[in-house]
Amino acid sequence: MADFSMTIGGEAVATEGTFGVVNPATAEVFAQAPECSRAQLDAAMDSAAKAYRDWKSDEGVRRQCLRDISGVMMASLEELAPLLTAEQGKPLNDANLEMFGSAMWCTYFADLELPRQVLQDDDEATVEVVHRPLGVVAAITPWNFPVNLAFWKIAPALLAGNTIVMKPSPFTPLSTLKVGELLRSVLPPGVLNVVSGGDELGAWMTSHPVSRKISFTGSIETGKLVAMAAAPDLKRVTLELGGNDPAIILDDADPAAVADGIFGGAFANNGQICSAIKRVYVPESMYDEVVDALASRAKAITVGDGTEAGNKLGPINNAPQFARVTELVADALAHGATAAAGGKPMDRPGYFFEPTVLSGLSDGVRIVDEEQFGPALPVISYRDLDDVVERANGTHFGLSGSVWGTDTDRAAEVAGRLEAGTAWVNVHLAMGPQFPFGGFKWSGIGVENGPWGLAEFTDIQTMHRAKGTSGLSPISSMVVG
Ligand code: NAD
User: Fold this and answer.
1) Considering only CA atoms, which residue is closest to atom 42 of ligand 1?
2) How far apart are CA 340 and CA 359, in angstroms?
3) Active-site entry in 240, 371, 448, 456
């Protein structure tokens, strides 16, 4: 029997099967999540399709619902945040912030105008571009920010008039299931369905005949499978995928001044952020100083169980990711890197890894070329600025990147040369519901957030109203009279 229920058609739904959810701070199963069957997914899609008929027609109701959801999230912090910490590992403070951010996303979208543009308004016609909802959205999320990333989808999709079937990661299903439960009292039945299960459930969703749009956040590898699954039915897709963000420090930067920003941009959420700094390029002249500044921060930061006050970093979320970070760091050390801080798993139960700063390595080593998605940061020296921009861009990734320097115009010019969806100057991970976020190249297709993200939950319709009654356009008049 599962400890949490799925939400289908506004009701709690139990399942025959369950799967264990592990607390990464102990590496032990602490709860059972429901395993959605194929028939239950059909029921969720069906209920979303039925709810769509009314939901799409009343914008006022949708805006009010988003405000109500925001209120529920703020009122439920004490219930949701510890649950997120238990399944994800992040410190309670961060879990609270994630809930707060989710509420903020709803408030922002509740007041965002649906884009509408008048193209012609004269004696002949009024022509407008209006945005129409798509129908049922299949929303699939990863384990690093399960709730916040769910709301990156829920808030705009609902405002636009769509209904949703949402599936969280099997590593972190509980907080999203709980959100589904809490919102049963706010949303009409079927508007938001939350199901849980393994990767196979995601694949069923992306090939399901009812869903018209797939909004996916996860790895590049899975993103490609999603795109393939969407193709036969021409479902719309937004793919928010992996990154390998470079941070380039320029030769006029003050190492002491940028160290906090770089460290925070790399180690927030234990490095498990798609757009975290994953490699730092530093001029040779200040290399040692930067490595020391980052290493001293890595050594000083408190790591431990997220439920204990004072810990800034928790464990890595899951066993495969823990194994991957361990392997990439060991590979770097085997290829001549030095661990200026950390370098190995912590000697305690759970998936704890020492915050690690690696020096003495270059491009061509796996931890520089691949996405580590964990608390290990390679620091690479460079001599020539054009060359380092080329190296920063020389991957399939293109999510975001940052450039750090005292002359901010020069830094902005360099940042503008990054092949990345977001280019930051003297900051990293500055995000908000109003800023579009998405990747170039293999880091994604489309964007989330802002009016641009909202538009991705719509198709555009050209609404052409002729002023006269002749009914003839220049083309149709070719065959008449
Ligand atoms: P993942 O791709 O393994 O899983 C993501 C989700 O997809 C999970 O819910 C999973 O069950 C589901 N899934 C797995 N196989 C599927 C399939 N064949 N069809 C449909 N769904 C399927 O990713 P993850 O390990 O959970 O997350 C880490 C990755 O996510 C990293 O690469 C990270 O960079 C990326 N990420 C990107 C963003 C962004 O906004 N660009 C944000 C957060 C995380």
Assistant:
1) 274
2) 6
3) 240
CATH architecture of 6-241+439-463: 3-Layer(aba) Sandwich (3.40)
24: left (phi over 0), alpha (psi -120 to 50) or beta: alpha
Ligand 1: residues with CB < 6 A are: 140-144, 149, 167, 169-170, 199, 202-203, 206, 217-219, 222, 225-226, 240-243, 274, 371, 373, 399, 439, 444
Chain segment 63-90, per-residue pLDDT in tens? 999 999 999 999 999 999 999 999 999 9
Nearest to 338 by CA among 302, 283, 295: 295
CA–CA separation, 171 vs 143, rounded Å?
A: 6
Q: Which fold has domain 245-425?
A: Aldehyde Dehydrogenase; Chain A, domain 2 (3.40.309)
Concerning whether 371 is annotated as a catalytic residue, the answer is no
State the distance from the centre of ligand 1 to the C-alpha of 99, rounded, in angstroms.
20
Q: Which helix (H) or strand (E) holds 180?
A: helix 174-182
Strands (E), 230-343: 236-240, 245-249, 277-283, 338-341
Q: pLDDT of 14-37, one tens digit each? A: 999 999 999 999 999 999 999 999
Residue with tokens 């798609």: 274
**What is the location of CATH 3.40.605.10 in the chain?**
6-241+439-463
Is 240 a catalytic site residue? yes
Q: State the catalytic residue, choosing from 274, 371, 448, 456.
A: 274
CB atoms within 10 A of CB 165: 27
Q: Are 59 and 161 in contact (CB under 8 A)?
A: yes
329/372 Cα distance (integer angstroms):
9
Would you say the pTM of this structure is higher than 0.90? yes
